[in-house]
Specification:
- The chain is an alpha/beta fold.
- It has one domain: Alpha-Beta Complex (Amidase signature (AS) enzymes).
- Helices cover 40% and strands 15% of the residues.
- Strand 9 and strand 10 form a beta hairpin.
- Helix 1 packs antiparallel against helix 4 and helix 8 crosses helix 11.
- The protein is globular.
Length: 399
């Protein structure tokens, strides 16, 4: 892993944290997380703070929060100290951490490459050791992708299990709260603050989605598949019986319609300043075919039923987290679009089925971290963490 010197660390801190939310906050001095610090993605309400949502108009015109989001209160009341609010892709519409208004947070594990988004600032701060854990949101991969890019553990929780009150909605039928850590022990501690003590580890029924390992670039799939096969006795399953395109045809109209129904009015207000990429995405969302939205809804439910039945209450599905190495920081928008579509083929599965997914650091390729992911049935976060604990540090084992 690339090591940041003091001057570089200052630059990481400057780009990871939002200036308007840089002051720390502690509500109590005792508690199970009293020895930990954390960062909060700038979509969460914190009483007395503004939230920019990654947009300068919202920072200027938005109200100061009068109450703190429950998702932030949980660690605060467990004694953790909030170090500040962190950068996000504009309106959470991004997979890379590229924000032309406020800058691009640095990926401490690969400084010439993107940190991943939209929980980019939280990932950067955790990976650099500036905080112990970072809160973020995940709609289509916004916790899992930066975890893979930055060499972190990242948990997307079961949809609806953590309150999203006081969190900017992006696509409500997909939006979840999640968190990023450098190690699995901290991941367990933070998760138990939300869900209570996790059950003792048991032997999971492992399944490897072989067709999912055909999606990444050969250098990624070729590095990850042997690691997946080394995790224990596992059954081969087919995740995309009708092809990758069939899954994306469900995800796209539902997510775009959610986005426009939720933020379209705000984004299209006369005089609104939006980056070109977000303006184009809002325009695309405005053209979503209602017939496609209606047709996708029962198909989503059928996919969910199939996955929930497959996983049961003891199954864990193993897939790659992202399809390639992080894009370079100066990659053109066209390259970002192509990358997003391919990685969405992997991340959309848990998003559509509302299931928990834990991204874990697995190896390095060309000096960059590469993540593997574990998916469980509803409310199976504890099972994922318990299994990950038995694996030790895969990335260290693989070097």
């Amino acid at each position: 892993m690339h090591q940041a010197g003091p001057a570089t660390l200052a630059e990481i801190e400057r780009l990871a944290f939002m200036e308007h939310g840089r002051s720390g906050l502690r509500l109590r001095d005792d508690g199970v997380l009293a020895d930990l610090t954390f960062a909060v993605k700038d979509l969460f309400d914190v009483a007395g703070y503004r939230s920019s949502w990654g947009n300068p108009d919202q920072l200027r015109d938005g109200d100061v929060a009068v109450a703190t989001a429950p998702a932030v209160l949980a660690p605060l009341m467990a004694g953790a100290r909030m170090a500040g609010k962190t950068a996000t892709d504009e309106l959470a519409c991004g997979m890379f951490g590229m924000n032309p208004h406020f800058g691009i947070p640095i990926n401490p594990a690969a400084p010439d490459r993107a940190p991943g988004g939209s929980s980019s600032g939280s990932a950067s701060a955790v990976a650099a050791g500036l905080v112990d854990f970072g809160l973020g949101t995940d709609t289509g991969g916004s916790i899992r992708v930066p975890a893979s890019f930055c060499g972190l553990y990242g948990l997307r929780t079961t949809h609806g299990r953590v309150s999203v009150a006081g969190v900017m909605p992006m696509a409500p039928s997909f939006d979840t709260v999640g968190w990023l850590t450098r190690d699995i022990a901290t991941m367990r501690r933070v998760t138990e603050v939300y869900f209570g003590p996790a059950a003792a580890a048991s032997s999971p029924r492992l399944m490897i989605a072989r067709d999912a390992f055909d999606i990444p670039e050969p250098k990624i799939g070729g590095a990850l598949l042997p690691i997946a096969l080394s995790l224990g006795e596992a059954a081969d399953v087919t995740l995309y019986p009708d092809g990758v395109g069939a899954v994306l045809d469900i995800f796209r109209p539902l997510q775009l319609h959610d986005l426009y129904a939720t933020l379209g009015g705000w984004a299209t207000r006369p005089g609104r300043r939006l980056s070109q990429a977000v303006e184009e995405r809002i325009a695309l969302a405005s053209r979503t075919d209602p017939a496609q939205v209606a047709a996708a809804m029962p198909r989503r439910e059928a996919l969910t039923a199939r996955l929930v039945d497959l996983l049961g209450d003891d199954g864990i599905l193993v897939i790659p987290t992202a399809h390639d190495l992080p894009p370079l920081r100066d990659a053109p928008v066209s390259a970002q679009v192509a990358f997003r579509e391919k990685t969405l083929a992997l991340t959309s599965i848990a998003s559509l089925t509302r299931l928990p997914q834990l991204a874990i650091p697995a190896t390095t390729v060309a000096g960059c971290p590469v993540g593997l992911s574990l998916i469980a049935g509803p409310r199976g976060e504890g099972r994922l963490i318990a299994f990950a604990e038995t694996l030790g540090d895969l990335a260290a084992r693989d070097t």
